[in-house]
Amino acid sequence: MRFILVNGRTPFRKTSCLWCCEEIEGGYLRDARTLLRYCGYECYAIHQEAASLIEARTRAAS
Q: Whole-prediction pTM value?
């Protein structure tokens, strides 16, 4: 798990969290590999868990 914590800043363009779709204001997390933005650690952690499950299922199906 690698992420960048951005405090006191908002993205240049109006953006929403990838997981919960809330507008990002006043700080956010950014995935270091994909540069996707999340409103906080909770959404980032949930997305990482879901992504690993989806990846495991697609490997099993192929």
A: 0.66
